[in-house]
Amino acid sequence: MALSSFLKLCASALLLGGTAQAAADTMPATAHLDSIVVGAGCFWGVEKRFEAMPGVVDAVSGYADGNGVEPTYRAITQRRNQHNPNNHAEVVKVSFNPAQISLTTLLQRYFEMHDPTQLNRQGNDIGTQYRSTVLTNSQAQYDTAQQVMTAYQPLLSKAGYGSITTLIKPLREFFPAEQYHQDYIAKNPNGYCPDHSTGVRFNPQQQTQVASADNSALQQGKQILVIDSESYCPYCEKFKAEVASKYSGDIPLHFRYASQLSGLTLKTATWATPTIILLENGKEVFGHQGYLNPDEFYLLLGKFKLGDSEAFNVAFDEGTDGRFCQQYEIFKNTPEGVFIDKLSGAPLFDTRHRFDSGTGWLSFTQPVDGAVIEKPDNRYGMRRTEIRAAVSGIHLGHVFNDGPGGKPRYCINATVLDFVPRG
User: Fold this and answer.
1) How far apart are the C-alpha atoms of 193 and 228, rounded to whole Å?
2) How far apart are CA 181 and CA 171, in angstroms?
3) Where do the domains of the chain lie?
4) Residue 47 contacts by C-beta under 8 Å, 6 or more apart in sequence?
5) CATH class label, 317-421
6) H or E stretch including 150?
């Protein structure tokens, strides 16, 4: 894996490896297992995709097919070996139960998960270590691999791709990679899944399912585009669960596959999932490859929506509206309704709990249940309790104990709110 790719993947833990381990734990002791070694670029993503397949018992990252080069990450990534034809390839040894997944099916998934027409590279990862290769343990495996590759070539040619460069040869020796490379994506959940697949499928029905998408809405005004994975990507699922599922802002959020981006003007490469792209009238304003946590996503969205404004200063620099500001004057006497987070769209405060404190800031006796979080704020020599939005994390104001009838007073900045009348 190239150093640039390594730096883009951040650290922590998802439980991807559990799929293969669970299969191993429940496998009958008498089951006949087979294995095959394949290379399809960076072994992190290849290992992860195989581990998610039913019938795969284990997938181990490693090195193979080199000569005169030490089978270690340090050695194969040296500059002098980048174009060395004798360099080891980054490979994955896949152990599988043929009763659950055939070698033909496994190899079909292998060819579909990368671009086998690229020579000694996959995407931005360039060098002989990233070559496409199938290393077999028997003549039967060799023949099956040749048959699958031969069947795939006309499908690729029909889609406009060139000749397959995959090398199929007998395995001499497999060297497991260093421990930190094993289940790497599972250990590092704040990155992206490299997806260099062509989108060409052995099953034509699978191919037509994602053939096109109507992007007319993405070409109008401000839009949020998230490039999703056609296969399982833990970072995509995490983004959906932690960010997208809780977002209800007024800038629409759209999911697309990399094959569904026609009509858009993009600068960021689309082979990493997720990739978050902010569009204006169909043109990219900003792009980020990889998972964004809620704080990172809303900071990016804040720059996109609010720009250099008082609202941005309040939301992210913990600023304060001027007393009796214009937005306060608009919001202090609204009809019945709910004040919502300007970025996430989440309900924050209800007019039922609004009162006139005479301070020049919006005041409420309570927030919507679960809508805000409290944090100690000891800046400027004061002891206060800061109020932030639970979903977006933006700064809203402070809470004091001098509200009416002994209730709290939530002193809230108007510029970070929008208002929705009660229907």
Assistant:
1) 10
2) 21
3) 3-205, 213-292, 317-421
4) 59, 60, 61, 92, 182, 183, 184, 185
5) mainly beta
6) helix 139-158
**Whole-number pLDDT of residue 212:** 74
- Taking the CB of residue 338, how many other CB atoms lie within 10 A of it? 20
Domain 3-205: CATH architecture, name and number where available: 2-Layer Sandwich (3.30)
Q: Is 42 noted as a catalytic residue in this protein?
A: yes
b/e string for 171-186 if b means 16 or more Cβ within 10 A?
beebeebeeebbbbbb
Residues sharing a CB contact under 8 Å with residue 314, sequence separation 6 or more, in sequence order: 320, 321, 395, 413, 415, 416
**Distance (Å, rounded) from C-alpha 255 to C-alpha 240?**
10
- Please report, as a single letter, which amino acid is at residue 203: N
Measured in degrees and rounded to the nearest 5, phi and psi for residue 195 equal -125, 100
User: Which candidate in 42, 233, 236, 411 is catalytic?
Assistant: 42
Phi, psi values for residue 67, rounded to 5°: -150, 120
Q: What global pTM score does this model have?
A: 0.75
pLDDT in tens, 363-414: 999 999 999 999 999 887 888 999 999 999 999 999 999 999 999 999 999 9
Distances from the Cα of 1 to the Cα of 42, 89, 110, 274, angstroms = 5, 10, 18, 19
Cβ-proximal residues to 218 (8 Å cutoff; 6+ apart), any chain: 225, 254, 263, 264, 279, 282
d(CA 230, CA 195): 9
Q: By C-alpha distance, which of 340, 404, 403 is closest to 372?
A: 340
Distances (CA, A) of 155 to 145, 167, 422: 16, 19, 56
* E runs forming strands in 4-105: 34-40, 56-64, 89-96
185-210 pLDDT per residue, tens: 667 767 888 778 888 999 876 554 44
C-alpha distance across the termini of the chain, in Å: 55
Q: Which amino acid is at 111?
A: F
**Nearest-angstrom CA–CA distance, 4 and 8:** 7
Contacts of 205 (CB under 8 A, 6+ apart): none
Look-up of token digits 């704080």: 295
Amino acid at 252: P
Residue 337 DSSP one-character state: E
- CA gap 85, 90 in Å, rounded: 13
Judged against a pLDDT cut of 90, whether residue 29 lies above it is answered with no
Q: For the structural domain made of 213-292, what CATH number should be given?
A: 3.40.30.10
Residues in the chain: 423
For 136, list phi and psi in degrees, rounded to 5.
-100, 160
Interatomic CA distance for residues 320 and 306, integer angstroms: 15
